[in-house]
Amino acid sequence: MNRRYLAYIDGQFRESDQWFDDLSPVNGELVARVARASQDQVDEAVGAARRALSGPWGSLSPAQRAALLHKLADRMAEREAEFVAAEIADTGKSMPQVRTIDIPRGTANFRFFADLIKNVPSEAWHTTTPTGQKALHYTVDKPLGVVAVIAPWNLPLLLATWKIAPALICGNTVVVKPSEETPGSMALLAECIDEVGFPPGVFNLVHGFGPDCVGQWLTEHPGVDAVTFTGESKTGGAIMKAVADGVKPVSFELGGKNAAVVFEDADLDKAIAGVARAAFTNCGQVCLCTERVYVHRSLYERFVAGLAEAAKGYVVGRPEDTDTVMGPLISRQHRDKVLGYLERARADGATFVTGGEVPQFGDDRDQGAFVLPTVITGLADDHPVNREEIFGPLCHVAPFDDEAEVIARANDSDYGLAAAIWTESLTRAHRVAPRIEAGLVWVNTWYLRDLNTPFGGVKLSGIGREGGLHSLGFYREPSTVCIALD
Ligand code: NAD
Ligand code: 6OD
Fold first, then answer.
1. Nearest of 53, 39, 72, 12 to residue 147 by alpha carbon
2. Which ligand is nearest to the CA of 233?
3. Which residue numbers are catalytic?
4. pLDDT of res. 71
């Protein structure tokens, strides 16, 4: 394949002196050559974004910006097959997942925020002071300015557009850096943006790596007004340091070490299927994936056996094969990290109920980054496998005896992104859910999303909330006007 992914700066596609390889995790083959942006190009992108703020973009009404976002979503829908192909080439995800989740959510993000902005009221107060002075106060919502959007590789289009769409609808301009592992769908998005006629400089795309490279140059850039980031917690820490002197706003969606709790009154079959989906979707590479499972002792043996059976049913293979349910991890490097945790678990006496190995295909996939879906038991709660985010197709299952104990164990984590509770008792669900230290608690389901709801984590899992009005709360700032009435 001879694709070339270029930067897009000030309405122009740009070459580079330095290129890096985008490799397929299915077989290690070259997917594309990617133009690594230079520091000068990052400067140009930020400069173009600054100029666009006060240019035509700044004078458009929210309704006009919304019309352009809808036009963009229409164009993305027309080019859907290309987005599917680009995302699959970069990630190796199964075709049904990319077709039904990743790409439709990319277009839905633009439509959702385009529609939301039309119905958001502004605030106003008529007041009288204790000394009788009357005044009218109202708020004017203003964009933050130039927003740096830094995105990860696990849901490349979905997660980048989850930030780009609200940033643009609020009148900001953006400089986007996708993950170096998954540049393809953002390169296509830049083409669509160009085709539908966004003013130059409103959307800029720069490819490259993070530390000492494009990511760091962007977050340290004095012309960037805010950073919205999804990725690892330790990268979030590095970005916080980079923006500290400028006291810039950040929105961080970071890592997770999410627990599932299966109570004695759970529907066992439903819980097994749900936990399997939560552990193995996207090869375990969703920040919301369940990696720790606590099961009431009365169900424990049956649950573990059932989950192992479900895991064995996850056919691992090529994205385009119709029976494939799970693809590879994102890269060989990430696979080594996941295998490192599995080796450690083995050395420390864990039981591997199923999986734990690299499948042997006897063809080019042996050059890929596959790992079998894995269920482990027998490790203590303080083992690194139970404390650190692994981001692979595995979960550890442990028994518990009572509700208070399991709430404490679920909460004993440095992370707090999401949790799932499996119970048929409404009372228990309402009692337990608020006591879980996480930004999102599902009951008898997993990854059921409504774009209006606040999304984000506590502890190492993030800062702030995005989603619906919460996104608008981050991407624009109210300024108060006070008019004396007498
Ligand atoms: P990562 O932190 O390694 O990289 C994310 C992005 O940051 C990439 O574009 C990378 O190039 C860039 N980057 C890296 N170092 C940087 C630096 N010093 N300065 C600026 N940019 C830098 O994360 P990843 O491996 O791409 O993604 C997986 C991680 O993302 C997991 O931890 C996962 O939990 C997390 N994640 C969280 C959410 C959420 O919503 N909470 C969603 C998806 C992924
Ligand atoms: O669905 C979403 O809006 C969202 N932010 C999902 C995050 C998934 C993490 O990998």
1. 53
2. 1
3. 253, 287
4. 98
